[in-house]
Specification:
Length: 80
């Protein structure tokens, strides 16, 4: 039996919000992330899965602030 997560209420805060994030690495314009959007509610845990070269590490490096996205916005507890 699975239980559906509770619906988001107007007062619920997201721990992480990623909106239309893109990262392109030169030379050659290798697209590591293309229009990634994700919301993680406070208190929830998510995993990022994918093949080698799929852009998981690049996404995490942008979340940590190690590299900046070329486009889009990242918010942690509502702050850029």
């Amino acid at each position: 039996m699975s239980v559906a997560p509770p619906c988001k209420t107007k007062t619920q805060e997201y721990a992480i919000e990623v909106a239309d994030v893109c990262k392109i690495f030169p030379p050659g314009g290798v697209v590591a992330n293309d229009n990634i959007s994700l919301r993680v509610a406070k208190g929830h845990v998510h995993a990022v899965l994918g093949e080698n070269g799929a852009g998981k590490t690049t996404l995490m490096n942008m979340l940590y602030g190690m590299i900046k996205p070329d486009k889009g916005e990242i918010r942690v507890f509502g702050e850029k």
